[in-house]
Amino acid sequence: MRHLRKTTLRVTFGLITCVSVSAVTAPSALAAISITEYDLTFPSEPRGITTGPDGRMWFTEYYSNKIGAMTTGGAITEYDIPTSNSGPTGITTGPDGNLWFTEIQGQIGKVTPSGVFTEYALSAFVEPGSITTGPDGNLWFTEDNFNNIGKITPSGGITEYSIPTSSSTPVSIVAGPDDNLWFTEAQGNKIGKITTSGVITEYATPTGSSFPTGITIGPDGNLWFTEQTVKKIAKVTTGGSFTEYAAPPSIVGPLFITAGDDGNLWFTDLNANKIGQVTTAGVFTLYDVPTASGWPYGITSGPDHNIWFTEDNSSKIGVVTGVYTPPTPTGPTDPGSSAAPAAADPSAPATGFGEPGASSALSIEIAITSLFSIAFGLVIAGAASRKQATK
Questions:
Q1: Residue 168 is part of which domain span?
Q2: Rounded distance, CA 318 to CA 297, Å?
Q3: Are residues 43 and 146 part of one domain?
Q4: pTM above 0.90, yes or no
Q5: 119 within 8 A of 1, measured Cβ to Cβ
Q6: pLDDT digits 0-9 by tens, 89-116
Q7: Among positive and negative, which fits the CA dihedral 59, 196, 121, 165?
Q8: Domain count within the chain
Q9: 387 partner at 20 to 30 Å CA-CA among 19, 154, 205, 332?
Q10: How far lies 339's CA from each of 279, 328, 329, 373, in Å?
Q11: Is the residue at 94 inside a domain?
């Protein structure tokens, strides 16, 4: 174990390079989806991305050997990893309030929100990939080349568990709703489940040679994953029942996946250069990444209700805005209130209601609702007066 001082490279504001509202199928009228990109130092090859405990988006930079952090407003800070050419890949927020990440050269790294690093060595030649926080307060990760699932305590104690299917190539791992860890087996064409005590159960995917890759918990309590080679998004219940959904023809190979605050699943397609959205009923909407050959890779939901992703080839961080539509206010207004309505905050994150065309539609809807409420109140009042007069 090595404990080193923080090494901050730079703090800057990412350059917004492009905005796009292109979609394969039209989004809902109140959700004007757009994609904005922020430049990193080229080449950096960002890969994994997660929301940090400080509200910033944290990501790994595979080529430049850094851990990056960016505010939702675009302010970027980068930290040099102590070990050179470490190959940082996966990243997650740990139970201790630090960021934990994998180094493909055989280490698990930890960095505090202020940039202090600690690194823990694994067995020789192990290449850890994805990492997540488990329900037991430990960090769990995949070892694709050694066919293991690993566990590391916040103090650095490491345990490894062998996957029953040989050469299964575990890729992604996530904590499930059943207090187990769920992972994909790309070469084994299986979804694996491991208890916190290390007992592994495997479920074969319905379609052979599907190469399951990314996995996440869906809003419906199921595990959703990508099937890269057969161009499908699938789900599996905690009991092992599968459902698969074929993606549109323009999809080449869905890669990683996350759940959005809109109640849908969002995924990257590196080769098609698209961000995809799929409902829990299997309805797809696709969005082009503005930069050609950007290669969208990692993806996660941010604290601002937007979808954030990395672009491995173009060295950018992208954000899909307009994802979350706040619920429409309901209930009568207070007739005795004389307070003026609050002015809109132009610096607030964009939502479906804040996009062009959406606010006017909402205003009309609220106005109609208010008129109906007033008319209904007058009818009730008139009926009450007539009843009183006949007594």
A1: 2-321
A2: 10
A3: yes
A4: no
A5: yes
A6: 999 999 999 999 999 999 999 999 999 9
A7: negative
A8: 2
A9: 332
A10: 40, 20, 17, 20
A11: yes
